[in-house]
Amino acid sequence: MKFRRDHNCNYEHKTKSDVLVIHDLDIGGASVTNNMADVLEEIRDSGISFDDIPIVYKDSDGFFDGIELQNGSLGSIRFISLRTKDEDEAIRRMKDRGLLLWR
Length: 103
Hints:
This protein is of the alpha+beta class. It is built from two helices and six strands; from the N terminus they run βββαβββα.
């Protein structure tokens, strides 16, 4: 798991069960939710590809939700309400949903 502190966000990320998982550490600074494009760009720039895997993130309230990208573009992010506090359940739901790049 990597700790990042750029774009004034504090977060960790990892790959689990072929899903990119991002945790907002909620220790001050900007929220991951409000800066998702910057966070994803930073993760991609670090060499981690998520073009072919689902993405889930835990917000500052402790809930996991999903993310879909329009045609893989960081400029077009759709948030998917999963509203679970269980990481494994969020991963299962996004994997069941399948990788969708809406057009």
